[in-house]
Amino acid sequence: MVFLVGAVTVPGSAQTAVPNPPVAAYQPLTNQQRWDHYLQDTVLSPGLYFASLGVAAGSQLAHDPPEWRQGFAGYSRRSASAFGVFTIQATVHQGAAAALGYDPRYRRCDCGGFWRRSGHAIKWSFLTRNASGQTRFDVPALAGAYGAGMLPIFWYPHRFNPLTDGVRIGNQEVGFYVGLNVLREFAPEIKQRLHFKH
Questions:
Q1: Quick one: which of 86, 95, 104 has its CA closest to 11?
Q2: Residue 136: which H helix or E strand, with range?
Q3: Alpha carbons 110 and 118: distance in angstroms, whole number
Q4: Is 109:120 a contact under the CB 8 Å cutoff?
C-alpha cells in the first residue's frame, strides 16, 4: 500500500505548474481549460500509465496486498488499482476545484533562493486561488488526497478499513503532495540540468 500512495500525484505533474502572477494579472481557468487540464492530468498523461505500472511493480515486489497473489493476474490487478487511485485523486481534486471556482494548478514562486522557493512550494500545497485571484485554503487538494486514500479501500481486501487505513494513507498522501510541489517548483532547473548532461 505504501508504494501505491507514493506516486498518487505524480501523473500530469508537468502540466500542473504555472507562473504565479499578481492578483490583478490573474486569469481564471475557463471551463474548456479545466477540462483540458483534467484530461492532461489523467487519461492523456503518459506519466499516469507509467506510474501505474511502476507502483504496481513495487506493490508486487512487496506482496502488497498478499491476497492479490503474484503472477500476471496479481500485477494486472495492482496496475488497475493504481490507475484507479490516480484517477480518483485528480477527479476529486479538480472536480471540487471547479465547483468552488478554485485553480487546481500549482503556481511557481517568482522569488529566488532555495529556501524561499521551497517554503513557497510547501505553503502553496495548502493554498490556491479563487476565480478572483485571491488566496484561499485549498480544500479540493486535501479532498483529493483523502479521497485517493479512502475510496480505493473499497476494492481492497476486507481487512482494510476506510476510516483507519484510508485516513492513514490520506495523511501520507498529503506529505507526498507537498514533496511533489517542491519538485514542481524546481522542475525547470532539474530539466535543464538533465538536458545539459545529454
A1: 86
A2: strand 135-137
A3: 12
A4: yes
* Rounded Cα gap, residues 118 and 122, in angstroms: 6
Q: How far is CA 81 from CA 1, 50, 64, 173, in A?
A: 10, 13, 12, 16
* Residue range 20-36, pLDDT digits in tens: 778 778 999 999 999 99
Q: Which amino acid is at 176?
A: F
- Which residues, including other chains, have CB under 8 Å from residue 30's CB and lie 6 or more apart? none
Tens of pLDDT along 36-56? Answer: 999 998 889 898 899 899 999
Is-contact 6 52, C-beta < 8 A? Answer: no
pTM of the model: 0.83
Residues 118, 185 contacting (CB under 8 angstroms): yes
